[in-house]
Amino acid sequence: MTESEIRAEIAAERADLVEILAGLDEARWSEPTLCEGWRVREVLAHITMPFRLSTPRFLLDLVVARGNFDRLADRAARRDTAAMDDAELLASLRENLDHPWKSPGGGYAGALSHDVIHGLDITVALGIDREVPKARMEHVLAANNERGVRYFGVDLDGIELRADDLDWRYGDGSVLSGRAQDLLLVLCGRTLPAGLLHGTPAARFTRHS
Questions:
Q1: What pLDDT score was predicted for residue 158?
Q2: Please, what sign has the CA dihedral across residues 80, 8, 124, 106?
Q3: Which residues, other chains included, contact 59 with Cβ-Cβ below 8 Å and sequence gap of 6+?
Q4: Do residues 47 and 18 touch, judged by C-beta distance below 8 A?
Q5: pLDDT, tens digit, for every residue of 130-156?
Q6: Could you tell me which of 11, 104, 89, 93 has the C-alpha nearest to residue 55?
Q7: How far apart are CA 21 and CA 28, in angstroms?
Q8: Strand-pair partners of 174
Q9: Which residues sit opposite 107 in a β-bridge?
Q10: Do residues 198 and 178 touch, judged by C-beta distance below 8 A?
Q11: DSSP 190
């Protein structure tokens, strides 16, 4: 994809998520997502954090978090959900469909990945059967293979991820199959609801409640 095409996909992904979230009632905003410890509202606060957090404030928060980005992100999400109601969080996304934020080190491809992955954190956890458009998913998978595994520390030794809706596979060994978007979440260290993954390794990456 060209830069302009990626930015168009980012805007489209954000618009899709706005439509989904606008249809949720208040109770669903409080439901847990695939991001451990975060409800729907904390995930949305995180998605929209780059639109509100200035560079000086980000650097200050990073110092306070002792250089740990995950700690910074968690504190920022909780701070923002305490200061903003659900309508304000949704407005922050709606008003920034074309925001030019780029993921540090990942560029616009990283920004698209960020929005797609966290959107799935919400929809998959809530049982919303939303399918990410194929071209968008292919681009995100291409940008996240090795990088995602390294960042999230997922142990995929002896496992081959094999999409059953796209011509995509990753790794070698016992086959773990499913939709490409669900396998993307495996790459990102998520455990998924039952029934989405198939194959001998599926139990390792499935939530057991």
A1: 96
A2: negative
A3: none
A4: no
A5: 999 999 999 999 887 676 677 788 999
A6: 104
A7: 9
A8: 159
A9: 103
A10: yes
A11: -
